[in-house]
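Cast an eye over this sequence plus tokens and walk me through the fold:

***
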Amino acid sequence: MTTATVTTTNATAMTRSNSINNTDDSSFLWDDLKHWLTPKHSLPEAIQLFQNELQERLNTSTVSMIPTKSLSKGIRSSILDNVVAVNHKRILAIDFGGTRLKFAFVSMPDCKIQSQHDLEITNKIVNQDFFNDIIGWIVNHPSFLSNLDSIEDIDNDLLVAVTFSFPLNERKEIVAMGKGFVMTDDLVGVPLDSILKKSFIENGMPNVKIGDIINDSVAVYLTSEVFCPQQIIGTKGENEDVNSFSLILGTGTNSCFELPFDSLPVFKQWQFKDSLKKNENVKSSIINSEIGFLGTFIDLAPFDISTNRYSKINMPLETITSGKYIPIILQNILQDYHIISNLQSSAIKFDGQLVCELVKQKNLTKLSLKYEEKFGLSLEQLIIVQKIAILLIQRAAFYLVGALKAIINLKYTKIVEENENQVFQFGYVGSFLQYCTFFQDQISIYSNNTIQLQFLEDSNLIGAAIAAFMN
């Protein structure tokens, strides 16, 4: 796999950083940071390089540009077509997001959440009992019982939709668990829908139909298609429907979008062999791009390496854009250039909330009082920290826009050629981007207002319900 490498060794970096013994030596600091943080390519060049990577990964990669769901028609039209055909008007949606589980009843086709509840998952051993306990908590919840009593089509099976944020193969089998969870051998090779069906039966609910199981990136895309409808003026002067795009920017960075089925390489088309054998008219596929892998051309600095300073980075774009890594990079800079002491650095919690708080402040006086009292950080130090955070967000926005514009160009080449100022909608999730309004503003600036962002609340639940309703 191609990886981005750091062009200056760690030893060199530490020699450079030792040149700065206090915050007064600002000339070298800003010259050095601008050298590392200023993109070496123009935005059009970056867009083309990203587009080349997208095409290459579509053709060859097994870990990115992954087709996840085949479609025979548009999502919005599928929902409208199913309004009469589908008996299940209220769907039980479950979001297995990691350490916190959510469930809600979602009314369709209006995609409205009737009630929502969550549960902190403390058991990290994933076996059949793990799912039995979770489903048991859901079906015995007062909200579940009251909603079940009021469902109009009570004689039909309860339709269940699931967003599962861990990797599944095409047979819906769990292939890996992260976030501290450990799966036992008895679940290996067992489809998740079978596991869940068994759990409902164990809890006295045999009349259940597992409508669909999707990952979180697909859930965001389906929600975006419904809540961010888009039309453009076509070549004949008439309005034409086009697909929206989805963006995930929280602790990670990702995007989903549709591509024509015939644009997929044969080995990626083949995963839909069951649909093809049934002669279903597969027109397009939802692509889980895993855009965090992009950016092999980006010149990374020594401080961009987060955990192991000598390791290679195989997700360059995610490293410099996500809410997980930007705070770590900020801390690395402050330590490497001796802007704050190690004691201060260890006391401060470097996270996305801190970065968002820093870059939005126009007057740091009030904030400095808090930081001076808690961490002994002076106003002068805080001003420098803020400037560095701003540079990091500006770099992130530049490359993120480059990647998103590359996705647009890949899908809508002719539209962009005819109108480079065409606006495209991106429905998004992720608290880092949601609360970092400066990041949003920089995306608007670098995209010349051609990328419009719309936050999608509860998309994991709504997207799952949409998927089940369409099936």
